[in-house]
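Hello, quick one for you while I still have it in my head. Could you read through the record and tell me how the tokens relate to the sequence? No rush at all, and the record is pasted right below.
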Amino acid sequence: MDVYIEAVFDSAGVPDAPGRTLVQWFRTARLELFKDLVEAEAAGEGKVVSEAQLIGHVDDTPRRFPQVGRTWRQFEEGLAAFPWGANIIFLSGQGELRTLGRTSSLHVLGGGSAWRASAAVTLNAPGDVSSCRALVDFLHTALDSSAPAFGRIEGNNFHELTNLDAALRRRKRTSLRESRQFLRGYAWVTVCPAELTARLGGAANLEKSGAFHRVLPLQAGGVLLQASDTLTGYTDQVMQRVFEALAPVLPPGEPRPDPAYPAMRFVPRNAATIR
């Protein structure tokens, strides 16, 4: 798998019924992101097998749901109760055991005050417009009824830290707690929360900047920003434009490479110096 998709929610954006964010995320993943895998498993030829899990608390025994297509109703009921963690994994059922796709959620701050949902997929044609657009459309649908604190899609970076957090040596918990004060990073696709979108002049102003291929407002607040039409089109020049457009809400500091994250991409400039 080579594409990482992430969304971060918090109690400020979702004060009531946080479990609905998980239901929407996993349901959209099943219907859109993993539609072909779900159909392949349902065909009954054994080429794809799936299993879902719900984890209530650290010491609880996980509840397992084999063949998630058949056990979906029970799994979704568990998601609505806002479990500590949840995941679905799709595996090749024949020959060499391979992970074909996965999606998960996890509480990332104490008391369930912030939680992360993520997915990992293989993009066979990172230069194909329709394939890339489908990833963006999935994220937009999954988040449209929420007010996320952050989100991103990028290639070959499955770290919990964003590229910018790693380059600035920001602690993960600090970054999470300040996600509505500073944008945690930027990528091929970046989800900017409502508070920071307002500071940037709103969706219309971001579209007017010319830094983004698509600007997609979220109904519940915030905006999804697609930098280029394809993942391979996210060049250093495009990344520079994105950085400059988002600089007013990025955390200050001089970013520098971190040997622990050799694949990270960032603009080596202090956002506070951009006017």
Notes: The chain has nine helices and ten strands. The CA atoms of residues 29 and 118 lie 10 Å apart. The mean pLDDT is 93.
